[in-house]
């Protein structure tokens, strides 16, 4: 995951203006290319929007600690 400022001359697909960074997330292909079959992440239990997004992307809860949930890609990323 990364964010980057683009200019109106060199804009990304999510360009809004020269002062708003564009967020990019690209993991599945890179992980697959490095022979990883699954991915994990942690998310704050109060961040329900992110949790719902990750669930829609195939992640399932596998544990947690304190206010963090650990999630694992439910399917192989093949």
Q: What does the secondary structure layout of this molecule look like, with pairings?
A:
Blueprint lengths: L1 E3 L17 E3 L3 H6 L6 E5 L3 H9 L2 E7 L2 E6 L5
Describe the overall structure.
This protein has 78 residues and is α+β, with helices and mostly antiparallel strands. The chain folds into two domains: 1-36, no CATH class; 37-78. The chain has helices at residues 28-33, 48-56; strands at 2-4, 22-24, 40-44, 59-65, 68-73. The strands form two sheets. The protein has a three-stranded antiparallel beta sheet, covered by helices on one side. Strand 4 (59-65) and strand 5 form a beta hairpin. The longest helix is centred in the middle third of the chain and has 9 residues, at 48-56. The two termini are 20 Å apart. The model has no long low-confidence stretch (mean pLDDT 83).
Brief digest:
With 78 residues, the protein is α+β, with helices and mostly antiparallel strands. The protein has helices spanning 28-33, 48-56; strands at residues 2-4, 22-24, 40-44, 59-65, 68-73. It has two domains: 1-36, no CATH class; 37-78.
For the structure shown, list the relevant keywords:
2 domains, extended, 19% helix, alpha+beta, 78 residues, two-stranded antiparallel ribbon, 3-stranded antiparallel sheet, 2 helices
Rg, Cα atoms, Å: 15 Å
Shape descriptor reads extended
Total DSSP E strands? 5
Percent in helix: 10-25%
For the largest sheet, list the strands in their spatial order.
Answer: 3-5-4
Q: Averaged pLDDT, please?
A: 83
Strand content: 25-35%
List unreliable stretches of 5+ residues. none
């Amino acid at each position: 995951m990364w964010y980057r400022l683009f200019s109106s001359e060199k804009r990304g697909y999510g360009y809004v203006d020269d002062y708003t960074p564009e967020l990019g997330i690209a993991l599945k292909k890179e992980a697959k290319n490095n022979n990883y079959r699954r991915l994990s992440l942690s998310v704050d239990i109060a961040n329900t929007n992110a949790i719902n997004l990750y669930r829609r992307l195939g992640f399932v809860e596998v544990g947690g600690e304190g206010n963090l949930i650990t999630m694992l890609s439910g399917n192989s990323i093949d």
